[in-house]
Amino acid sequence: MSPPGGWRGGAARHGGGAGALGARGTMHFSIPETESRAGEGGAAYVAYNIHVNGVLHCRVRYSQLLGLHEQLRKEYGANVVPAFPPKKIFTLTPAEVEQRREQLEKYMQAVRQDPVLGGSETFNSFLRKAQQETQQIPTEEVPLEVLLSNGQKVTVTILTSDQTEDVLEAVASKLDLPEDLVGYFSLFLAREATDGAFSFMRKLQEFELPYVSVTSLRSPEYKIILRKSYWDSSYDDDVMEQRVGLNLLYAQTVSDIERGWILVSKEQHRQLKSLQEKVSKKEFIRLAQTLKYYGYLKFEPCVTDFPEKGCQVIVSAGNSELNFQVPTSTGPPGSSPGKAEVKLELAFEYLMSKDRLQWVTITSPQAIMLSICLQSMVDELMVKKSGGSIRKMFRRRANGALRRSDSQQAVKSPPLLDSPDGSREPMLKLSSKLTSVSLRGISHSGSASDLGANDFHGNYAFEGIGDEDL
Q1: Percent helix, percent strand, percent coil in the chain, to nearest 5
Q2: In the predicted model, what is the mean pLDDT of residues 13-37?
Q3: Rounded distance, CA 182 to CA 394, Å?
Q4: Which residues contact 424 (CB under 8 A, 6 or more apart)?
Q5: φ, ψ for residue 462 (rounded to 5)?
């Protein structure tokens, strides 16, 4: 099913339930609870737990958030910064504590969703510092393991206080990746299954410390993976201009074919293997670019209400679309495959035909990552529409050039492709004709029907995307 046209202009709305969801980076940002803690001298105070994707990011006091608010007002003006919950003279009652929690949550959502405030160093450095203090990890040099798409381990020496961009630069330096290609790649947090497959959870953001983020999960199944961060395969030409970029792209392509993300016929498989044997990496990638689902990111099985309610599907994102793969065998109707610490929904409007829209809802623990994919597609389309370059999408550090490692590590060439799997699942294509996108956190005690109109917080990530942009 592929009706004409493309993305429609509209608002991306991010809903509450278990917490609100910010537009920038499309993170599940919430303050679901408070704690009574003892401060200096034994005096009790209320701490607010800020969660990202259902995981505790940091624990802060009202006075700390007030300090952040005042700094933002000083830098950007009172007319730009949202209203902050007022101080109280007397001790708060339990009802007032809950009211303040809700107000602070909405405040953090509003700041995060603002393209200026949410991307500011003041806001992000506040969250990074609070994350490190909450997890009680001192600043020191540590080794951090980052995986490439082919499973190769790259160990870099970083500071525990290094932000995502610092770690990305360290990995690029270790691999000897040129500075002007760093922006084509990103670091992703993924969970490794028992069979060695990876489930991508989210792209690491500018407000977090990668070492602290992965360490605080306290589970060896969580890994940091380097992967290309763009969707338009025409950018492959830029990456393949340089040896390290070519090797990274080649390793990822081979890996995606091996895991079944890219559909390959027996004849195509034979041709690809022949190019591997000749070490013709560019030609290998050129052929792979012509294959179905090249450059797509595949997600774990999830539940959707399309084409019918409770339908179990496997979603892939790429080429400015979502693609639904309907497995031949599914569990009981309405069941949610896989384990999920946080139950989330991604909802969007789909243009079935001219003047006929239909809401489609996906329930998945990877709803955050799905939403990130959609928004990054829009970002890429807007850059292209404005005549810009993806090279400029990477924010340069103000204090100089990329730090170079004393020792480099080569990208290992992956082994030859295994025999292709002849079994293919039936596919149901869902083109990305979006007018609105909603990402909702659902409480464990309730469902989507429990959410009211006030649970949604709007942003305009999809504004300005029209039919002519695809």
Answers
A1: 35, 25, 40
A2: 47
A3: 8
A4: 263
A5: -100, 5
CA 235 to chain CA mean position, Å: 20
- Average pLDDT score, the chain: 78
Express each pLDDT in 215-257 by its tens digit: 999 999 999 999 999 999 999 999 999 999 999 999 999 999 9
How far is the C-alpha of 389 from the C-alpha of 380, rounded, in Å? 9
Say if residues 81 and 69 touch (Cβ distance below 8 Å).
yes
Distance, in Å, from the CA atom of 428 to the CA atom of 389, rounded to the nearest integer, reads 33
pLDDT at position 148 over 90: yes
pLDDT bucket at 4, cuts 50 / 70 / 90: very low
Adjacent-strand bridge partners of 314: 301, 325
Q: So what's the pLDDT on residue 37?
A: 58
Write out the two tokens for 346.
């991604």
Burial of 397-414, coded b for 16+ CB within 10 Å and e otherwise, reads eeeeebeebeeebebeeb
- 311-318/185-192 β-pairing: unpaired
Rounded to the nearest 5°, which phi and psi values hold at 310? 75, 15
Cβ atoms of 298 and 200 closer than 8 Å? no
Tokens representing 409? 């590590």
In our burial notation (b when 16+ CB lie closer than 10 A, e otherwise), range 45-78 reads eebbbbbbbbeebbbbebebbeebbeebeeeeee
Closest among 339, 320, 335 to 470, alpha carbons compared: 320
Q: How high is the pLDDT of residue 27?
A: 52
CA atoms within 13 A on the CB side of 71: 15
Task: Give the separation between CA 264 and CA 270, rounded to whole angstroms.
Answer: 10
> How far apart are the two ends of the chain, measured CA to CA in Å?
17
Residues 457 and 110 sit within 8 Å (Cβ to Cβ): yes
Give the phi and the psi of residue 164 in degrees, each rounded to 5.
-55, -45
Q: Is the confidence at residue 174, as pLDDT, over 80?
A: yes
Contact 423, 415 (CB under 8 A): no
Let me know: does 437 contact 376? Beta carbons within 8 Å.
Answer: no
* Rounded CA separation 47/399 (Å): 35
Strands across the sheet containing 28-38: 20-21, 28-38, 44-52, 55-61
Token output for 68: 């952040």
pLDDT in tens, 88-123: 888 888 888 889 999 999 999 899 889 899 999 999
